[in-house]
Amino acid sequence: MNNELPKTKIDERTGIEYYLEGDYYIPNLVMPKQEKIVLNKYGRMRLKYLKEHKKDNYTIMLMNGTLNTHLKEIQETADNRVQQIISELKVKSDLTEDMKNTDMLYWVGTMNSIKAQAEEIVFSELIYV
């Protein structure tokens, strides 16, 4: 009669697979593969916010393998939204490309202000929610 234990077994109640290590069964828990992404400014800010203020959401997304997809979506949406808001604010401020040549300091200052306004809107809409 063969008294050898099976190398793997599955708990029917939980569905977790176990493998035999010496005399003990160890759960075969593996994190799902996530796509590799390069985070830009908005992706890094969202990740930091999730880690520090939404730990439960961060942990759930990390364990489900959806964190990188979420961060990629947030950063693409944020980039597009910032560009859209900048375009709208440029039109409202009557800022033209000719002003670069005539009054460069005014143009740069106004553009910096417009970009800061656009980013603040995106931070409140997408990053810090």
What's the short version?
The protein is mainly α and 129 residues long.
**Are there runs of 5+ residues with pLDDT below 50, and where?**
none
The rounded Rg comes to 25 Å
- SSE pattern: EEEHHHHH
Q: How confident overall, as mean pLDDT?
A: 90
Helix content: 55-70%
Structural class by sheet pairing and helices: mainly alpha
Largest sheet: 3 strands, antiparallel
Number of strands: 3
User: Whole-Å distance between the termini?
Assistant: 63 Å
Keywords:
129 residues; mainly alpha; three-stranded antiparallel beta sheet; 3 strands; 60% helix
List strands and helices in order, with pairings.
Blueprint: E1 8-10, E2 17-21, E3 24-27, H1 41-53, H2 55-64, H3 67-92, H4 98-102, H5 104-127
Description:
With 129 residues, the protein is mostly helical. 60% of the residues lie in helices and 9% in strands. The chain contains five helices and three strands. The chain has helices at residues 41-53, 55-64, 67-92, 98-102, 104-127, and strands at residues 8-10, 17-21, 24-27. Strands 1-2-3 form a three-stranded antiparallel beta sheet, with no helix packed on it. A hairpin with a 2-residue loop joins strand 2 and strand 3 (24-27).
